[in-house]
């Protein structure tokens, strides 16, 4: 049977260590890591899946990591982020927090107005003053639990410190900005995602950021918008003021584990066959826990994206590459070797999961 023949070929290839660099790069971690979710997170967002430094054992409790090696830099980043996570509200709690803040802010405005028209000799004046200072303190504390608020304030202070030439202060606010941003989900979607583009089937995108703009570049494409082109962009500046979250009914809320889904304004690219007449349409990105969707609004077209498993990532990137290489003689041979490796790999793991069960962002 073909599959057993391919398995032999695979075994032989492994034994001889005849690997292309790509195969080689992924082979070791793929076979030694029990939990795919962590591998894909590392392979996808960091591009450094071959880690050399051993992980100290005291990470076990905070991070449910499989037994594999993580570079020191990333360990430090995780440590910082775990600390930051406790500081900020997330998910539905963030919307409750903002509701409370809005309520208290109104009370503050009212009390200030009243206090101004009450004469100083009136005993109510003192009481109001006291309430005002209480409200100010409370608002300061509550706003400090909203990572987007802290990021916005830090960005402003950073700009001021920079223009004043105060390097020490600039460094402080820059670190504060980074820390807050690390806890804002829409700023932490870096890396690879897979979504089904209607009739065009599954496609892979790479999410990167340029300042406050999220950019989704196609790593695999189709006849309309090909590989290498931008699929969509999202404007994340001033996001708190932009769009109200989608509020789910209780049944859907139960299913997703949250009632409020944050939304952001974007632009989605479309084109006729052959990337003719590319056009940018109004769009929206919606965060749904560990997934997100992007909608091309005028078309009523919505694509859900999930983190690909490491297996799917390899498969899609290789397929896309092998299509490209067919015109090149040497490349065609290498291509054939890769395909053999790949096919056997896939036969071994048929019916394996397409997407990760556990998301890496939550
Ligand atoms: C995704 O983008 C990042 C940042 O530009 C880059 O380092 C990485 O190699 C890209 N990933 C792939 C698979 O192209």
TrEMBL record:
Keywords: Signal, Ubl conjugation pathway. Pathway: Protein modification; protein ubiquitination. GO terms for biological process: protein ubiquitination. Residues 1-25 form the signal peptide. It comes from the Eukaryota. Residues 40-64 are annotated as: Disordered. InterPro entries: FBXO31/39. This is Uncharacterized protein. It comes from Thalassiosira oceanica (Marine diatom).
């Amino acid at each position: 049977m073909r599959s057993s023949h391919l398995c032999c070929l695979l075994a032989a290839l492994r034994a001889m260590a005849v690997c292309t660099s790509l195969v080689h790069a992924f082979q070791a971690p793929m076979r030694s890591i029990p939990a795919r979710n962590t591998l894909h997170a590392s392979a996808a967002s960091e591009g450094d899946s071959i880690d050399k430094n051993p992980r100290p054992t005291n990470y076990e409790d905070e991070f449910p990591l499989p037994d594999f090696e993580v570079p020191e830099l990333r360990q430090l980043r995780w440590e910082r982020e775990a600390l930051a996570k406790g500081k900020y509200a997330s998910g539905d709690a963030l919307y409750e927090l903002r509701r409370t803040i809005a309520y208290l802010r109104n009370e503050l405005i009212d009390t200030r107005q009243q206090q101004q028209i009450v004469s100083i000799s009136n005993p109510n004046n003192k009481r109001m003053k006291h309430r005002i200072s209480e409200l100010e303190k409370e608002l300061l504390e509550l706003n400090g639990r909203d990572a987007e608020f802290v990021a916005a304030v830090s960005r402003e202070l950073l700009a001021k410190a920079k223009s004043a030439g105060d390097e020490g202060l600039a460094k402080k606010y820059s670190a504060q900005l980074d820390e807050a941003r690390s806890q804002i989900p829409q700023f932490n979607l870096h890396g690879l995602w897979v979504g089904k583009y209607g009739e065009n089937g599954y496609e892979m995108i790479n999410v990167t950021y340029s300042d406050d703009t999220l950019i989704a570049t196609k790593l695999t494409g189709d006849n309309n918008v090909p590989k290498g082109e931008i699929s969509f962009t999202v404007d994340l500046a001033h996001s708190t003021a932009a769009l109200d979250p989608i509020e789910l009914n209780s049944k859907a809320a139960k299913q997703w584990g949250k009632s409020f889904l944050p939304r952001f304004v974007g632009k989605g690219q479309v084109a006729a066959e052959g990337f003719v007449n590319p056009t940018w349409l109004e769009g929206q990105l919606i965060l749904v826990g560990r997934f997100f969707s992007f909608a091309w609004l005028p078309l009523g077209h919505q694509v859900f994206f999930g983190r690909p498993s490491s297996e799917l990532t390899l498969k899609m990137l290789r397929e896309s590459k092998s299509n490209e290489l067919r015109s090149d003689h040497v490349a065609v041979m290498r291509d054939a070797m890769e395909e053999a490796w790949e096919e056997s790999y896939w036969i071994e793991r048929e019916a394996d999961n397409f997407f990760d069960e556990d998301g890496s962002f939550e």
